[in-house]
Amino acid sequence: MTTVNGGISFWYADTGVPVPREPLPGDISADVCVVGGGYTGLWTAYYLKKAVPFLRITVLERKFCGYGASGRNGGWLYNGIAGRERYAKLHGHDAAVALQRAMNETVDEVIRVAEEEGVDADVHKGGVLEVAYTPAQLSRLKAFHEAEAAFGETDRLLLGARETAERIRVAGTVGGSWTPHGARIHPVKLVQGLARAVEELGVVIHESTPVTEIRPKHAVTPYGTVRAPYVLRCTEGFTAALKGQKRSWLPMNSSMIATEPLPKEVWETIGWQGRETLGDMAHAYMYAQRTADDRIALGGRGVPYRYGSRTDNDGRTQAATVEALREILVRFFPATAGVAIDHAWSGVLGVPRDWCASVELDRATGLGWAGGYVGSGVATANLAARTLRDLVRLDSGQAGPTELTALPWVGHRVRRWEPEPLRWLGVHGLYAAYRLADRRELDAYSAQTDPVARAADRVSGRG
Ligand SMILES: Cc1cc2nc3c(=O)[nH]c(=O)nc-3n(C[C@H](O)[C@H](O)[C@H](O)COP(=O)(O)OP(=O)(O)OC[C@H]3O[C@@H](n4cnc5c(N)ncnc54)[C@H](O)[C@@H]3O)c2cc1C
């Protein structure tokens, strides 16, 4: 059994890694320059060009569209958004409810546009199932369920152990919570289809073109500079590598494995007919999907962060992380004990110091950005992009304020991360604490969240 490690991600295994489009040929001018060809950058280009067809939009991508998290994620297209609770504290409950409602609609918006543009991304809208397998997790699950209802998610179902197992038989499950606001997707099919759709609209994409510096009205690359009144930074987990951004969003690793296609007998043991995306309530949580070709793709936090905000090499992940993920797989589904792990990979998320996603267009400079989605960016990037579209149109006098420009994450600023070695020590300490808390909750089998996790939440700014 050989496991492919890296190769960007399993999602490229069938098609291979794409041949990059032509790099920037020299100095050019544009109306809007988008830096980064992931979901955020491509959706932004898509919606802007749709709204204002005469706009000259250039996308600059360091490698190829979908090189980053958009080509490596778990394929949960769902309504979670990082920072909602903090936004409720800062702007009031109603503002956060509006943000959540917009996220619920975003899941369907992505599915709608994918269909309209002929992008077949293996979409299956089976909802999201979160399970608990310790009493402490069950307490958190119930609190989470109530919080979601308070933010307007009244169609969520709280499930007992048996009802949960009727959907997916996770060993030891004591309860679950299911929401319809989620779909399984194939991440690469979505990002590549989107790039094609954007290009067909007349947006110019230059790949193999790293932007070394962004300053007002300029995106600088080794091959030339794009001059544009609006330069929009959509670089998420890679942002720290840009000049002046070292201590903004921290590149947090997330790693995944994909099994071989599982035989019918194994699926009969597991269930999972509804193709829900699956998560748990552990502090160092896992996430999984049943792929269109009947594998399990499962992810979680391995080595959480590389010293100095470095990123991985084309998705390669550590052997210890692969083993840890395999252990989670087998603990969840003992029937997978003998199955091969075909692929392992990792990628980076953008984590702001206060764990809140944000969108911004600075009207004085024309510089904009969107991201800091932590682990919830597949749908959020679409909402962010439509918001950036509205902010550009507002600023250029083409349109007035909209419901999206009024959402509480617009214009949110956050302090920078600590310098090294504090950053490294902090993040590694945090995840060591979460793993310890998960083990202690399993051993104690009590309904209380472990105090170590509570302390870690307070220190990290997540609590
Ligand atoms: C393993 C993993 C699993 C995940 N699972 C989920 C999930 O199931 N559901 C969910 O909602 N979210 C998930 N996420 C998060 C989600 O994938 C991201 O939030 C989302 O894809 C971010 O999109 P983006 O376009 O902002 O960033 P990216 O997709 O990272 O795109 C940024 C792009 O910018 C390019 N770039 C960077 N620097 C430069 C530069 N200087 N010049 C030019 N180009 C540059 C990069 O090459 C990259 O293509 C996961 C992330 C990872 C890593």
From TrEMBL:
Domain of life: Bacteria
Protein name according to UniProt: FAD-binding oxidoreductase
Matches recorded under InterPro entries: FAD-dep_OxRdtase, FAD/NAD-bd_sf
Pfam families: DAO
Boundaries of every FAD dependent oxidoreductase domain copy: 31-391
PANTHER family documented for this protein: FAD DEPENDENT OXIDOREDUCTASE DOMAIN-CONTAINING PROTEIN, SARCOSINE DEHYDROGENASE-RELATED
